[in-house]
Amino acid sequence: QNPKTSAIVKQLVAERNVEELQKCFGLRMEFGTAGLRAAMGAGISHMNDLTIIQTTQGFCRYLEKNFSDLKKRGVVIGFDARAHLSSGGSSKRFARLAANTFISQGVPVYLFSDITPTPFVPYTVTHLKLCAGIMVTASHNPKQDNGYKVYWENGAQIISPHDKGISQAIEENQEPWPQAWDDKLIDSSVLLHDPYATVNKEYFKDIQKQCFHRNINKETNLKFVHTSVHGVGHKFVQLAFEAFDLRPPFAVPEQKDPDPEFPTVKYPNPEEGKGVLTLSFALAEKDGAKIILANDPDADRLAVAEKQESGEWKVFSGNELGALLGWWIFTCWKNQNRDACAIKDVYMLSSTVSSKILRAIALKEGFHFEETLTGFKWMGNRAKQLMDQGKAVLFAFEEAIGYMCCPAVLDKDGVSAAVITAEMASFLATRNMSLSQQLKAVYDEYGLHITKASYFICHDPKVIQQLFDNLRNYDGENTYPKSCGRFKVSGIRDLTTGYDSSQPDQKAILPTSKSSQMITFTFANGGVATMRTSGTEPKIKYYSELCAPPGNSDVEQLKKELDELVNALEKHFFQPEKNNLQRKTE
């Protein structure tokens, strides 16, 4: 019933544009553990009013089956600032249609009245003890995209088998229910609640449990620049600084207000490097700020840059900031907990493609480290299991600039990560140390960990499948590569098939998934490299790391070795020319 998408379809039919109609109607969007992520537009392969109604009807029926008290507890729905003029779709409209679907079935809905960071949704699920949460966002994807992210009652993103159960329920509930399109009905419903004021108060109260140096924060002369990259983060990071008694950061004026066109950046993704931070560097130079904090548009990720003594800016990788935050959060915990026995219940987590620096810190300091599959859905669910057993999960991170610094949110949170980084930097400044110097100190103490990650773009699923099939049948059927250029392969773990050469029974310990590609190679020189497909973008990603024991400080030699390993990986395993892969560009 949306006049805009309806007109698009009628126009395509009139033009007999079969190719475009095939793209719109050939394949329904797949509902996975990340929910939905696709371009806004007409047809069942896109995000639009109809597909949102169908998805929510399926999700509602699935929740009714799983929770006898759904009508008592209810769900929370949040949204970012994305909008798509030509199809009439927007995150706010999608959120209202989803709310209408639940309310029509007598389910209470806590719908945020305004844009909100993604982490506020899992926080609200836990805080108000709700059955589920939905966040309408496409995070840092291109402007035409949108998404539908789902959280379970434990406050973590859903994992299997919920994705399959919801997917099946969507298939069974495709015809819109009566009144499905009339979202105005919710405004007069007693089942509609607005959690905005409560959650804003409670969230900022809860993150203050991670504030350990209020006096230093009040006195610091350190200046910060913050950018929300045309997303939702501005107001919330300002409030977080206030909660920690830090002076508010300078906001990049051209980027502080939400704008679904993302006019000043090619990609609204701070992970893409210096291009996204150009305006931040200029403002920092003008105002004399040493540190830049950049959130992605839904404020669940954080990038950090620091001005070096040379005048250059260093953008920390996700692994480097993970090392710093891991060190800092453990140091703060240690200062608060003098009981030597307490450490046996302390945990930190990271994903299997992230740096193993936390493992090195854990080994030396005596706490537990666990790795999970890629993505915060795994770390959030594992953290909850451990917390339910009485353990303290201090920190979890992934190299894609995602950090969980506060147990009140079982997902990555760029708001708390920004203010905790600011407190860490302010504390270090009292010792005349920069973040870069502290990072070096961490590596000196726990061993150098250097990483290199990138990706190739490939829009053809057949080529991707062929590339991974070739690696599994490298020297004849069912044989993996024994070397990569001059680098000898000493171990293989394939989480698509479940094979792990290092295990006695050759079976991988981490869960396997046939629907996504992921192979990890261990090399005789101690290097590790993982190749995997992205769940939300047309990318084949790789991650590589070389670790040295404490005391080995020949950084340049290690970097050279890692560069050579990565070059060999690209040349022999990716074969970009043969497979017509497009390299990542700055």
UniProtKB/TrEMBL annotation:
Q: Which cofactor does it need?
A: Mg(2+)
Keyword Coiled coil belongs to the record: no
Task: Provide the alphabetized UniProt keywords.
Answer: Carbohydrate metabolism, Cytoplasm, Glucose metabolism, Isomerase, Magnesium, Metal-binding, Phosphoprotein
- Sorted alphabetically, which InterPro entries does this protein's record hold? A-D-PHexomutase_a/b/a-I (IPR005844), A-D-PHexomutase_a/b/a-I/II/III (IPR016055), A-D-PHexomutase_a/b/a-II (IPR005845), A-D-PHexomutase_a/b/a-III (IPR005846), A-D-PHexomutase_C_sf (IPR036900), A-D-PHexomutase_CS (IPR016066), Alpha-D-phosphohexomutase_SF (IPR005841)
Superkingdom of origin organism: Eukaryota
Which positions fall inside the Alpha-D-phosphohexomutase alpha/beta/alpha domain?
Answer: 29-175, 201-307, 339-446
Q: Name one GO cellular component term.
A: cytosol
Q: Where in the cell is it found?
A: Cytoplasm, Cytosol
The record's SUPFAM superfamilies line, in alphabetical order, gives: Phosphoglucomutase, C-terminal domain, Phosphoglucomutase, first 3 domains
| Gene Ontology biological process terms in this record | glucose metabolic process; purine ribonucleoside salvage
Q: Name one GO molecular function term.
A: phosphopentomutase activity
Q: Does the keyword ATP-binding apply?
A: no
The Swiss-Prot or TrEMBL record describes its family as follows: Belongs to the phosphohexose mutase family.
Q: What is this protein's record name?
A: PGM2 protein
- High-level lineage: Eukaryota, Metazoa, Chordata, Craniata, Vertebrata
